[in-house]
Every structure is written in structure tokens, then in C-alpha cells.
Write a structure and sequence with these properties.
By secondary structure, the protein is an all-alpha fold. 41% of the residues lie in helices and 0% in strands. Helix 4 (124-133) crosses helix 6. The longest helix is centred in the first third of the chain and has 24 residues, at 2-25. 21% of the residues are buried.
């Protein structure tokens, strides 16, 4: 009885295996449909985590600059064709916001006051880097799926400057917007 059951359960597996073997012997070759596709695929792999300096014209220590630039930043934050921060975060002015990331309402006086993942103090430069390319801020072991310390939560946010989804000026504006949220 037992042997029969085992045989029956193994049989489909064997059948599937031989099927795929036959399929393999017909020599399938994976080819890119477009001659330049391999280059396009390479381009799609985002460059590694990159550390950025805040440009001189991005005066994140100047409250007047922040107030002015924040308006632009709010638009970028909510622009689904640009940064689309609103897909994951709520913030003042957001409509239909997602909740994959924390609510950023009052960010500068709440979450920004909490230490970063390495226990570091969050500064305007830190927030700029966060928006530009957060990957340098999160310890590798938190982001490596093979590590026991892997935290999926730390691996979802979009990278904006390194991928050129946003330029320096746009990252500056979004950062100003976050700093204006008190
Ligand atoms: C695909 C979802 C997703 C998108 C899009 C996204 N974020 Fe996030 N964000 C997250 C998640 C998840 C966290 C919390 C985990 C973490 O800190 O990495 C987070 C954290 C943050 C934080 C908190 C950092 C801290 O600890 O102080 C800020 C600020 C932030 N995001 C800003 C933005 C901005 C600005 C954009 C758009 C340029 C954006 N996010 C786009 C998912 C997203």
C-alpha cells in the first residue's frame, strides 16, 4: 500500500522531468529580441549606493529658502510621474496616499528627531541623502536578504538621484518640503 502510494506520487514528477529533458534536448537558446537589448538590460541595473553632498545653492540651513523651496517640493512629492513619494507616504497636501512607508506629517518635529538606523543624528544633509540614495544609510546586513538581520522594510524605498529619477534641484526641493513639516 505504502509503496504504491509512493510510486504514484513519484510518477508525475518523473513524467514532468522527462518532459523538460526532452524540451532541453531541443536546444533552446535565449536571445534578445532587439540587438541592443543586452545594453538596455545593463542600463536597468541601478548603480551602487552613492553618497552625495548637498549643493551650495541648496540652502537647507536657511528657513526662508526652505519655506520657498518647500512648495516646489510638495508638488514633486505628490507627482505620480516623478518621485511618487505619495505612493508610499502621506504628507500634508497628499491625496490618496499609500501607507507602505511612515506618515511624514510633522516629519521635522517627529521622525526626524529619532536616531537613524546606525544610531546617528538626522541632519538636513541626512534627509537630502535619504531622498537622493538612502542605501548608504542602511547597514548592509539590514538590506541583504541572506543576512539574519535582514529587514525587508529597509529595502523598499525608491532611489532618486542615483537613478536620475530626480535631479539635484528636485531632491533639494523635496528635502526642503520634508524640513518644512513641523
Ligand atoms: C515604494 C515605497 C516608498 C516610496 C516610493 C518612497 N518611500 Fe520613503 N520610505 C519607505 C519606507 C518603507 C520607509 C521606512 C523604512 C526606512 O526607513 O527605510 C521610508 C522612509 C522614509 C523617510 C523616513 C526616514 C527616517 O527614518 O527619518 C523619509 C523622510 C522618506 N521615506 C521620504 C521619502 C520621499 C521624499 C520619497 C519620494 C522621493 C519617498 N520617501 C518615496 C517607502 C517609500
Amino acid at each position: 500500500m505504502k509503496a504504491k502510494k509512493l510510486f504514484l506520487s513519484v510518477l508525475p514528477a518523473v513524467a514532468v522531468m522527462s518532459l523538460s529533458l526532452t524540451a532541453n534536448s531541443q536546444t533552446f537558446k535565449i536571445e534578445y529580441e532587439h540587438p541592443d537589448a543586452s545594453q538596455i538590460v545593463k542600463k536597468d541595473i541601478p548603480p551602487g549606493p552613492t553618497l552625495y553632498a548637498v549643493p551650495d545653492n541648496c540652502k537647507l540651513d536657511n528657513p526662508k529658502f526652505i519655506a520657498k523651496k518647500a512648495k516646489e517640493g510638495m508638488k514633486i512629492f505628490n507627482n505620480k510621474k516623478l518621485a511618487n513619494c505619495v505612493a508610499c507616504h502621506n504628507a500634508p497636501g497628499s491625496v490618496g496616499a499609500g501607507n507602505i512607508g511612515p506618515d511624514l506629517t510633522g516629519y521635522a518635529s517627529t521622525l526626524m528627531k529619532a536616531p537613524g538606523p546606525r544610531g546617528e543624528k538626522k541632519t538636513p544633509d541626512w534627509v537630502f541623502q535619504r531622498v537622493a540614495d538612502y542605501r548608504v544609510q542602511i547597514p548592509k546586513e539590514f538590506r541583504d536578504p541572506h543576512s539574519p538581520q535582514f529587514v525587508p522594510y529597509y529595502n523598499i524605498m525608491t532611489v532618486n538621484l542615483t537613478t536620475k529619477a530626480l535631479n539635484y534641484d528636485q531632491v533639494c526641493a523635496v528635502t526642503a518640503f520634508l524640513l518644512s513639516l513641523k
